[in-house]
């Protein structure tokens, strides 16, 4: 028996773009894509590739040039929209997600109220639910927009750049939230994003828009290893396989580095950032260790040793040796 999650959205020969008098502007050639229940899929590509248009097409608010989109579940969309009614509260905004289900008199039932409160709790905004939108941060506002989509009680969430213009903490929080909603609440989530590092660490799958109007799909690590990301983004000075900026050694001194755990990794980062080459053949040895919970760095060369307790002291010492 297969353990594959059921498919809840599919495209069949879907061609995406714009139709005008001058002719069709095709953004994507015929696509056959699928979203499965309980997956977080990150949709990536260069600016102008057509990610927003495809998301709107999947949501049914932009007509396809050809082909069809089929869904077995309801769909909610979160766009990068500017909120003008800043005097409304967070709860007011989330409540709009229930409007498609209300009667002519817009009466909220106990069931509607429960769904609204659940959506607010899911995005951890209960403490500020009665704050006006003018009083909340950009990250909290984005969470409120996600809660509004959750209040629609849709099984499929489509989001366009939900982390744009947010700081690192908010970007991480939102991506972790979306991952939890997929894995714990069974939502199917497609999010267009430029957050390459976060996508690689949170997404179950990647949709990668290519310059030839196609979309490559796969597990994030596969697309790293087979060079798909490099071919699309043509990363300059960033080694995707290690997740680090590529540093060029510019000092004559090389260092044989020994150690383990995150202390070793951050020491290596500091040394390479400062122009030192890490080489096991070097006569200068640097051991990173912890003694009684105290970090220390021991430099050994020509039977002489020197120990320091911070990376700042280490770099200052090496600068003198390097002279």
Keywords for this structure?
323 residues; 2 domains; alpha/beta; Rossmann fold; 5-stranded mixed beta sheet; globular; 6-stranded mixed beta sheet
Could you characterize the architecture of this molecule?
The protein is an alpha/beta fold. It contains ten helices and 17 strands. The protein is globular. The termini are far apart. The model has no long low-confidence stretch (mean pLDDT 89).
Q: What's this, in brief?
A:
The protein is of the alpha/beta class. The protein has two domains: 233 residues, Rossmann fold, CATH 3.40.50.300; 68 residues, no CATH class. The chain is 32% helix and 28% strand.
Which structural class matches the secondary elements?
alpha/beta
CA-CA gap between termini: 67 Å
CATH superfamily of the largest domain: P-loop containing nucleotide triphosphate hydrolases
Question: What share of residues are in beta strands?
Answer: 25-35%
Question: Helical percent range?
Answer: 25-40%
CATH fold name of the largest domain:
Rossmann fold
What is the count of distinct domains? 2
Q: Encode the helix/strand succession as letters.
A: EEEEHEEHHHEHEHEEHHEEEHEEEEH
Question: Uncertain regions: pLDDT < 50 for 5+ in a row?
Answer: none
Q: Count of helical segments?
A: 10
CATH architecture of the largest domain: 3-Layer(aba) Sandwich
Total strand count, please?
17
What does the main sheet amount to?
Answer: 6 strands, mixed
Structural Rg: 25 Å
């Amino acid at each position: 028996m297969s353990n594959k999650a059921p498919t809840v959205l599919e495209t069949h020969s879907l061609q995406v773009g714009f139709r005008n008098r001058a002719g069709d502007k095709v953004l994507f050639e015929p696509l056959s894509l699928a979203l499965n229940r309980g997956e977080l899929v990150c949709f990536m590509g260069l600016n102008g590739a057509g990610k927003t248009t495809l998301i709107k097409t999947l949501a049914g608010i932009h007509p396809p040039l050809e082909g069809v989109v089929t869904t077995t579940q309801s769909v909610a969309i979160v766009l990068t929209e500017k909120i003008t009614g800043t005097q409304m509260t967070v709860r007011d905004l989330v409540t709009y997600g229930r409007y498609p289900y209300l009667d002519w008199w817009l009466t909220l039932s106990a069931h509607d109220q429960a769904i609204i409160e659940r959506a607010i709790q899911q995005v951890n905004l209960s403490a500020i639910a009665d704050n006006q939108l003018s009083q909340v941060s950009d990250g909290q506002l984005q969470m409120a927009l996600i809660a509004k989509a959750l209040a629609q009680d849709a099984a499929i969430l489509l989001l366009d750049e939900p982390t744009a213009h947010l700081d690192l903490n908010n970007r991480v929080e939102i991506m972790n939230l979306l991952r939890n909603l997929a894995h714990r609440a069974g939502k199917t989530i497609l999010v267009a994003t430029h957050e390459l590092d976060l996508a690689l660490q949170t997404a179950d799958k990647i949709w990668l828009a290519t310059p030839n109007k196609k979309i490559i799909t796969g597990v994030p690590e596969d697309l790293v290893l087979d060079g798909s990301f490099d071919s699309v983004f043509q990363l300059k000075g960033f080694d995707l396989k290690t997740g680090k900026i590529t540093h060029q050694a510019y000092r004559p001194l090389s260092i044989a580095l020994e150690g383990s755990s995150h202390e070793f990794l951050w020491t290596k980062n500091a040394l390479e950032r400062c122009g030192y080459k890490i080489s096991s053949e070097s006569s200068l040895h640097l051991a990173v260790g912890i003694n009684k919970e105290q970090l220390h760095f021991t430099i050994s060369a020509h039977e002489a040793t020197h120990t320091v307790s911070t990376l700042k002291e280490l770099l200052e010492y090496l600068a003198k040796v390097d002279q």
